[in-house]
């Protein structure tokens, strides 16, 4: 039995991961903003077999409260085996282009709050000499594109931060996993024209995340074929790339 | 910024997608849709819509061309499970497979289940689905304790046999047209062992099917038959009669791999054609050499044989398939089923999976419920244009004359003139229909505009 913290527990991917872990009898500490929905998710994971579920409602942009959140998790379960950081928003790119305030807000939510949590939990894990840090970044963070570069920049910051963190914690037996999903069919992507082979379900992404944790992977593209797609996209010369409508 | 409180509900903004397309992929291959993720979310503010589960209905009863579907595929949380009483409360989008994963290890089982475990609870209520034990325990509605219904005007109704019972009866089998089912309480049953002691009897005529059904009525909890629908003459109706009971507590449960086969792509043409059908049906009939075979099987392949192949609907190619499922009353069962099988054998348009089952006498609760006393026959056909529809019209003549009915969950063809004959309580149902909810099926059978 393991004890995991799930940040952004009401997001579709996090819910799916929670279901897999619940079925394995894990103890789960759920964090999200909306307390009613958090209770809905907690009840679900309880029925699905979680040994214990505790929920903690907070706005993750309130960085001052991050310590309090992590302390509550430790107090609830004694020790923590891992943290899954899955919260995020999908910015309105066009609106961000017109407003630095909005851009900053998105970067706070999608990057700075993640880095704050990682800083704190990394030190906590380092002291005890074990722990898994799993963060959902995105393929969008691999290269900036005109259609969503604010989101991409935030995710790119997270990906590079995690590379460094992984490098630092490797010798301490702490595994850091960067999860880079491609297109995922969740309510967050409701405005997209979905369907076709590039779209994956939250359950497929969740199975990939659980597998990556079990196998102590470092960077995982989900589904796997996004690794190939992003290799190509990353290697298009900028002279050509800047002319594309991506 | 995306915000789950402000979903895009203006249907002009919603893109077409193949995600929300019904299982048979006929008559529509695209459908605009959006998702209801939380019980407290508001419904679309304008336009016509249709609640949808996992779109496991075959035809157009879960489709709305010209409007959009409101899918509950993300509304799939358990709310509570009482392992002492066997009552499970869950959101409408929970699939039967999820329920089984939770309750089967604790000695509980679904009291009524259709042939796919990927159907949702909401879908099972809306179609008042039936299973192999209908002759003893009735349909899904009989094991439903209560549910919450959300109307498009925002009204929320708790419905049960004692509270809003008229809404309860209209919504069971109500094809999603009375409102959005948010959650439900379902009564499970205890089983000594989820595995099944199965007996497969190779029989050679329709008459034998009926005598086997009679003989097994009280002795076997589950009965069904697979029919070689291409056999004609004195072999008409031959097939395998499959009956079973739950295994004893001391019997070991046979292992069932969770690894499944899959149709990874859709072939450009249907793999099911007259040649493959004749070969399959003949080989399948003769697969079993002995007349009677006894074995203990895992519940999964027993109840859900087709679920073993993901995307099996793709084998019918891009044109999709239709199912013809009818029920005919006891007094005319043998003559009507004979006539139907003869008409099919004559055209040579065979069916891959032809299934026969005798329903029990328990009256369904729903005003539009399909299950009723008699014999039900289900046949899958690749869609071959006019030829298929013409055959269906010929079969309809038999069903109408026999005072039978067609199963809306499978249907994409019946005509409005026959609908009221099949479902005489339509008039009683009308006051409960939500004015903003409709379906392509409903428009077709009532000849109403969007």
Q: What does the model show?
A:
The complex is a heterodimer of chains A (246) and B (450). By secondary structure, chain A is of the alpha/beta class. Chain A has helices at residues 12-23, 35-47, 66-77, 93-98, 100-128, 149-169, 202-214, 226-235, 238-241, and strands at 3-7, 27-32, 52-57, 82-85, 132-136, 175-181, 183-184, 199-200, 219-222. In chain A, the strands form 2 sheets. A 7-stranded parallel β-sheet of chain A has the order 3-2-1-4-5-6-9, with helices on both faces. Chain A has a two-stranded parallel ribbon with strand order 7-8. Chain B has helices at 96-103, 121-126, 134-137, 165-171, 206-216, 274-287, 299-303, 333-347, 386-401, 416-422, 426-429, 440-446, and strands at residues 33-35, 49-52, 68-71, 78-82, 87-91, 108-109, 144-150, 156-160, 180-187, 189-190, 196-203, 222-227, 239-246, 261-262, 292-297, 309-310, 321-328, 354-359, 374-382, 405-406. In chain B, strands 15-11-13-12-18-19-17-20 form an 8-stranded antiparallel β-sheet. The chains are: A alpha/beta (246), B alpha+beta (450).
Question: Main beta sheet of chain B: strand number and arrangement?
Answer: 8 strands, antiparallel
Quote the average pLDDT of chain A: 96
Mean pLDDT of chain B: 92
Structural class from helices and strands of chain A?
alpha/beta
Shape, per Cα inertia axes of chain B:
globular
Q: Separation of termini of chain B?
A: 33 Å
Measured distance between first and last alpha carbons of chain A: 44 Å
Q: Spatial order of the strands in the main sheet of chain B?
A: 15-11-13-12-18-19-17-20
**Helix count, DSSP H or I runs of 4 or more residues of chain B:** 12
Strands of the biggest beta sheet of chain A: in what spatial order?
A: 3-2-1-4-5-6-9
Low-confidence stretches of chain A: none
Radius of gyration of chain B: 21 Å
């Amino acid at each position: 039995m393991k004890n995991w913290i799930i940040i952004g527990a009401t997001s579709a991917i996090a819910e799916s991961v929670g279901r897999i872990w619940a079925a394995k009898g894990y103890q789960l500490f759920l964090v999200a903003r909306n307390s009613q929905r958090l209770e809905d998710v907690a009840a679900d994971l309880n029925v699905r077999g979680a040994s214990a579920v505790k929920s903690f409602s907070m706005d993750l942009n309130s960085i001052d409260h991050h310590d309090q959140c992590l302390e509550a998790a430790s107090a609830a379960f004694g020790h923590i085996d891992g943290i899954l950081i899955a919260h995020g928003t999908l910015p309105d790119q066009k609106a961000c282009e017109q407003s630095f305030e909005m851009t900053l807000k998105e970067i706070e939510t999608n990057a700075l709050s993640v880095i704050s949590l990682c800083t704190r939990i990394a030190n906590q894990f380092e002291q005890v000499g074990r722990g898994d840090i799993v963060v959902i970044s995105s393929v969008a963070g691999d290269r900036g594109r005109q259609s969503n570069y604010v989101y991409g920049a935030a995710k790119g910051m997270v990906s590079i931060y995690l590379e460094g963190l992984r490098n630092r914690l490797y010798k301490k037996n702490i595994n850091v996993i960067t999860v880079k999903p491609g297109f995922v069919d969740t309510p967050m992507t409701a405005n997209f024209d979905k369907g076709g082979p590039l779209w994956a379900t939250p359950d497929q992404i969740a199975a990939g995340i659980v597998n990556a944790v079990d196998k102590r992977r470092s960077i995982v593209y989900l589904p796997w074929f996004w690794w190939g797609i992003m290799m190509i996209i990353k290697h298009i010369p900028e002279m050509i790339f800047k002319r594309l409508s991506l | 910024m995306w915000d789950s409180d402000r979903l895009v509900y203006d249907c002009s903004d919603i893109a077409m997608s193949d995600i929300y397309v019904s299982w048979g992929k006929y008559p529509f291959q695209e459908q605009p849709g959006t998702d209801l993720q939380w019980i407290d979310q508001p419904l679309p503010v304008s336009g016509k819509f249709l609640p949808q589960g996992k779109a496991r209905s075959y035809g157009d009863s879960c489709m709305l061309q010209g409007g959009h579907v409101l899918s509950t595929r993300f509304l799939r949380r358990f709310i509570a499970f009482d392992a002492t009483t066997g009552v499970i409360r869950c959101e409408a989008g929970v699939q039967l497979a999820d329920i089984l994963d939770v309750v089967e290890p604790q000695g509980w089982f679904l009291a009524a289940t259709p042939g796919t475990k990927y159907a949702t609870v909401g879908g099972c209520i809306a179609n008042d689905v039936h299973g192999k034990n209908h002759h003893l325990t009735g349909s899904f509605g009989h094991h439903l304790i209560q549910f919450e219904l959300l109307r498009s005007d925002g009204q929320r109704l708790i419905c049960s046999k004692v509270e809003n019972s008229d809404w309860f009866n209209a919504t069971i089998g109500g094809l999603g047209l009375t409102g959005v089912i948010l959650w439900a309480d379902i009564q499970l049953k205890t089983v000594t062992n989820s595995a099944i002691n199965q007996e497969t009897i190779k029989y050679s005529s329709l008459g034998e099917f009926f005598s086997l059904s009679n003989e097994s009525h009280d002795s076997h909890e589950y009965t069904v038959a697979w029919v070689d629908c291409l056999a004609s003459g004195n072999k008409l109706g031959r097939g395998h009669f499959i009956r079973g009971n739950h295994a004893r507590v001391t019997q070991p449960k046979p292992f069932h791999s969770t690894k499944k086969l899959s149709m990874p792509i859709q072939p450009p043409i249907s793999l099911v054609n007259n040649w493959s059908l004749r070969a399959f049906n003949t080989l399948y009939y003769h697969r079993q050499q002995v007349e009677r075979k006894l074995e203990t099987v895992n519940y999964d392949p027993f109840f859900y044989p087709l679920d073993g192949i993901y995307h099996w609907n793709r084998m019918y190619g891009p044109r999709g398939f239709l199912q013809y499922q009818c029920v005919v009353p006891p007094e005319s069962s043998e003559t009507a089923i004979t006539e139907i099988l003869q008409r099919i054998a004559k055209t040579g348009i065979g069916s891959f999976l032809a299934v026969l089952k005798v329903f029990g006498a328990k009256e369904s609760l729903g005003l539009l419920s399909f299950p009723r006393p008699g014999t039900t026959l289900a046949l899958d056909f690749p869609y071959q244009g006019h030829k298929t529809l013409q055959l269906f019209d010929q079969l309809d003549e038999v069903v109408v004359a026999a005072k039978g009915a067609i199963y809306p969950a499978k249907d994409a063809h019946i005509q409005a003139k026959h609908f009221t004959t099949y479902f005489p309580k339509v008039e009683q149902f009308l006051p409960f229909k939500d004015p903003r909810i409709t379906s392509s099926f409903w428009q077709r059978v009532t000849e109403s505009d969007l």
